[in-house]
From TrEMBL:
GO molecular function annotation: thioredoxin peroxidase activity
BP GO terms, sorted: cell redox homeostasis; cellular response to oxidative stress
Keyword Oxidoreductase attached: yes
Lineage: Bacteria, Pseudomonadati, Pseudomonadota, Alphaproteobacteria, Sphingomonadales
Gene3D superfamilies: Glutaredoxin (3.40.30.10)
Subunit composition and interactions: Monomer.
Protein name, UniProt field: thioredoxin-dependent peroxiredoxin
Length: 153
């Protein structure tokens, strides 16, 4: 599990037409991991980050959503809700495994593996400046923006 002060794992993601090197992104980066495109909580979270996209840009911070959905699903989701935040596909699970967000969950007594909603604020050098685990969606994007404004210089 990656925590504050740790370096991000050596991995890359494709998002918004660019390759992002997580170990050295070159600029501050918010990675928010979410379970599934076009579900109620995930839609609300994507819309909240989209609503604050200009604020993140003004702070010099790139925001990328990450799930195990294929890119085709991300493209539909982005178009349907006019999202301004790029979404990256982690179909093989390497990135979510490295960050510890692919975890065992339980619903109605049934155990299964799934994506834990989590967010990481990375510095330009790939150091984790702030980590949020087991995220609750309401107010979360605003909390991340506030932290980014304080921690990113």
């Amino acid at each position: 599990m990656i925590g504050e002060g740790n370096k991000a794992p050596v991995a890359t993601l494709q998002a918004g037409g660019e390759t992002i090197d997580l170990a050295a992104p070159g600029r501050p980066l918010v990675l928010y991991f979410y379970p599934k495109d076009d579900t109620s909580g995930c839609t609300r979270e994507a819309q909240d980050f989209t609503a604050l996209a200009d604020g993140f840009a003004a702070a010099g911070v790139k925001v990328v959503g990450v799930s195990r959905d294929p890119q085709k699903s991300h493209d539909k989701f982005t178009a349907k809700y006019e999202l301004k935040v790029p979404l990256a596909s982690d179909e093989d699970g390497r990135v979510s495994d490295a960050f510890g967000t692919w975890t065992q969950k339980s619903m109605y007594g049934r155990k299964y593996m799934g994506m834990e909603r989590a967010t990481y604020l990375l510095g330009a050098d790939g150091t984790v400046l702030k980590a949020w685990r087991k995220v609750k969606v309401p107010g979360h994007a605003a909390e991340v923006l506030e932290a980014a404004r304080k921690l990113v210089r």
